[in-house]
């Protein structure tokens, strides 16, 4: 089945406390060289049939109304190719 992925991230101007917590923990765990961390969400939707423009438009509406908070988050929709 085809898979459509929706990646949701906090908008750049929104504080990301989870990302900051990860950024603070990395050096304590021995990891260096990371200057910033932003934490988001990934949704994988398996769709029936072919991924058409209409299906992608539906997924876009899903992302706007349920999967993200458009006030503080942005999202990207993409089709993931079979491995």
From TrEMBL:
Its main location: cytoplasm. InterPro entries: PurS, PurS-like_sf. Pathway: Purine metabolism; IMP biosynthesis via de novo pathway; 5-amino-1-(5-phospho-D-ribosyl)imidazole from N(2)-formyl-N(1)-(5-phospho-D-ribosyl)glycinamide: step 1/2. GO terms for cellular component: cytoplasm. GO terms for biological process: 'de novo' IMP biosynthetic process. It is found in: Cytoplasm. Its EC number is 6.3.5.3. SUPFAM superfamilies: PurS-like. One of its GO terms (molecular function) is phosphoribosylformylglycinamidine synthase activity. PANTHER family: PHOSPHORIBOSYLFORMYLGLYCINAMIDINE SYNTHASE SUBUNIT PURS. Part of the phosphoribosylformylglycinamidine synthase complex involved in the purines biosynthetic pathway. Catalyzes the ATP-dependent conversion of formylglycinamide ribonucleotide (FGAR) and glutamine to yield formylglycinamidine ribonucleotide (FGAM) and glutamate. The FGAM synthase complex is composed of three subunits. PurQ produces an ammonia molecule by converting glutamine to glutamate. PurL transfers the ammonia molecule to FGAR to form FGAM in an ATP-dependent manner. Part of the FGAM synthase complex composed of 1 PurL, 1 PurQ and 2 PurS subunits. Belongs to the PurS family. This is Phosphoribosylformylglycinamidine synthase subunit PurS. It comes from Nocardioides marmotae.
């Amino acid at each position: 089945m085809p898979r459509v992925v929706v990646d949701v991230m906090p908008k750049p101007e929104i504080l990301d406390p989870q990302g900051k917590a990860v950024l603070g923990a990395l050096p304590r765990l021995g990891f260096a060289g990371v200057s910033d961390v932003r934490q988001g969400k990934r949704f994988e939707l398996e769709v029936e049939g072919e991924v058409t423009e209409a299906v992608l438009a539906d997924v876009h509406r899903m992302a706007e109304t349920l999967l993200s908070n458009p006030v503080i988050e942005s999202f990207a929709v993409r089709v993931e190719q079979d491995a």
